[in-house]
Amino acid sequence: MTQQLSGACVIAQSGGPTAVINASAYGVIRTALDSPQITAVYGAEYGILGVLNEALFDLSQEDAAELEMLLYTPSSELGSCRYKLADPARDQKDYHRILEVLQKYNIRYFFLNGGNDSMDTCHKVSNFLDEAGYECRVIGIPKTIDNDLCGTDHAPGYGSAAKYIATTTAEVQKDAYVYDVGTVVILEIMGRDAGWLTGAAALASLSGAPPDLIYLPEVPFEMERFLAEVTAIYQQKGKCLVAVSEGIKYADGQYVSEGKASASDGFGHAMLGGLAYNLAEEVREACGAKVRGIELSLLQRCSAHLAAKTDVDEAFSAGVFAVQQALAGATGKMVSLQRDENTESYRCRMVLEDLALAANLVKKVPPEWICQEGNFVTPEFYDYVLPLIQGENPRPVQDGLPRFAKLKKIRVNLSQT
Amino acid sequence: MTQQLSGACVIAQSGGPTAVINASAYGVIRTALDSPQITAVYGAEYGILGVLNEALFDLSQEDAAELEMLLYTPSSELGSCRYKLADPARDQKDYHRILEVLQKYNIRYFFLNGGNDSMDTCHKVSNFLDEAGYECRVIGIPKTIDNDLCGTDHAPGYGSAAKYIATTTAEVQKDAYVYDVGTVVILEIMGRDAGWLTGAAALASLSGAPPDLIYLPEVPFEMERFLAEVTAIYQQKGKCLVAVSEGIKYADGQYVSEGKASASDGFGHAMLGGLAYNLAEEVREACGAKVRGIELSLLQRCSAHLAAKTDVDEAFSAGVFAVQQALAGATGKMVSLQRDENTESYRCRMVLEDLALAANLVKKVPPEWICQEGNFVTPEFYDYVLPLIQGENPRPVQDGLPRFAKLKKIRVNLSQT
């Protein structure tokens, strides 16, 4: 397996975008373009669909300077999809098609950048190609703002989202606390299964503008207790800022975001407004305050203008490392970020881990990082997140606005290659 | 009136906060502290209430470096209020109380920083003090993200909000356009009466990521036409990004944000989610797309991390100018920003205008700056806004997070002064 393997490579971006997933793509593309063993560098349009549909961009035709702009461009520039491959034990059609396309284009290096679903896809594709006897090195590159990926200290994309959330929470706190007459503001933050993003709101305390309460999916939610806690702070300070995860659940496992609608009128209207609006309505009824619900929505995953330099650098390095390791013979692995626990200052290195470690599992916030009352995080949580949000990405600005990568996206035409 | 007038000054911040209202306060405070004629510099806690309640901070006791941090601190650091003075023709109680406090503290300079309501307050206070024969120079300093203030080319606060909106729209467009399967995203932007903020979303086109449609309050809204326009773009591109103003109204004057709730179920639930959610639901029904509603909410007015340097500089200069003009004898005026129309590059100077020009009036987007179809803005709109969003404010960052001003806020104790 460690012999020189010559052939083309393909990079596919998968799942929900982040502020830095393009930095990983750039790490792969730049390194691949510079590697003599790699004969062509293809980008799959719309993730794995680009392979299935033979919709591949020839990235060697892009301007080098524009490719570099991927370091500052949010979202997945090659496109993403919500398509999930079937279980190969039941349906191998897609896998045969992938093999067919890889063979046709002599693709020997396959890089997929995504979250736990994508690591699962990598795992299945890698196994299938192995069994089919087609030599192709498959490496997964982690990406998720949710940070719920197992097998890695953290996932590229999380640091920038956490920085955005902490910064925005601090700014909103200043605004929410501005009036003499009290206001309660409820910030809804992403994280269906884990509270990594919502916990990051606590870092606003370093700007002197913390939220008062934080509710994570790891702690069973009790509406009465929540209302009592908000009301107590509101009565004491005349103001209250609350950060809630979209994924908070009652003890019986039901999402709070689903709860009120059916209970209240059966029309499902409560769902329209989302969790923040519904909790705002509950708080308004409970304590009579002026309440505002704010959902950070897509903003928390696409705000490249607030990307953490540390995160951008790590995302890029993960892409570089993936190509280097594949060239050296690795396959069926994912890039993992390992934090050096023995140094005072933050240090992180890349290693390879088994794809199975990450596939379809969810990493939650450890219980000991959540305060006993279940409504804030502990100093250990700060220690974990703070290094990940450091550094300002020196993003290019033109006319006062972000300058994104402009790729030509020229489709591969095999007859010409 | 132009003789030397010695005495204390007070600065009050009013209305909804902006990213740069503290820069104007700093302009006033710094200039006042450096002016020998001004014997004390007070900050009113919670706007005009601070005067009424005799809740005044002695700003001479603040560290100079912390005061300077006001240039990078969002929201109104002295606090704001929603209190509106009565019409003095009906009730002069508040005005007599204001006079009493001004006399007690020998306040001879009164600066109020706010929107059209605040200019009205300035106007009334100024007239009352004149009639009472108490010499006090009253100057209004404009501030509003909405930019709907008459008597000035634009209002400090607008440029930074416009920059935030344009940047965020560009980033959201990249995200909304990422999938193979279409998505419609509806961005709800502030502006109850005027479309200045919503129109700024168009500038995202300079990042290559424009919204497809823009709906302003200046154009009567037709739901059927809106749905047809969104559906047409969705069917053509498989995606659509729409910017709507919170203030869009039907031809009969009813706000669209109020319309559906009572019409649909009478429970008022539709209002909870806000306009973006309701329009998202309408679009979902109309074209079957996956639709996401995003309300920019407070974020668009408190995002100091994206403040435009031009805006910060002008906000600061407006405060400086207010003090300089008051020292020179002006009173009963507001600071107005005048754009030099005769130069190729943007130039803006400060002048004084009558407070009555701005009080309680609303400046709308001119009809000729809105395209004929009523669903986008014209190049003239770009020309107007673009200079206002220029420049990055070199904000201090500590631990990867914004470093805000830390004021001691020491209450004035007259027995010590």
Termini Cα gap of chain A: 27 Å
What structural category arises from helix and sheet content of chain A?
alpha/beta
- Record the strand order, biggest sheet of chain A: 3-2-1-4-5-10-11
Multimerization status: homodimer
What Rg of chain A, in angstroms, do the CA atoms define?
A: 23 Å
According to DSSP, the number of beta strands of chain A is: 13
List SSEs of chain A in N-to-C order.
EHEHEHHEHEHEHEHEHHEHHEEHHEE
Q: Uncertain segments of chain A of ≥5 residues (pLDDT<50)?
A: 261-272
**Number of helical regions of chain A:** 14
Beta-strand share of residues of chain A: 15-25%
Question: Please, could you describe this protein's structure?
Answer:
The structure is a homodimer of 417-residue chains. Chain A has 417 residues and is an alpha/beta fold. Helices cover 36% and strands 17% of the residues of chain A. Chain A is built from 14 helices and 13 strands. In chain A, a hairpin with an 8-residue loop joins strand 10 and strand 11 (348-354). The longest helix of chain A has 19 residues, at 158-176. Chain A starts with 6 loop residues before the first strand and ends in a 15-residue tail after the last strand. At the A-B interface, helix 6, helix 10, strand 9, helix 11 and strand 12 of A face helix 6, helix 10, strand 9, helix 11 and strand 12 of B.
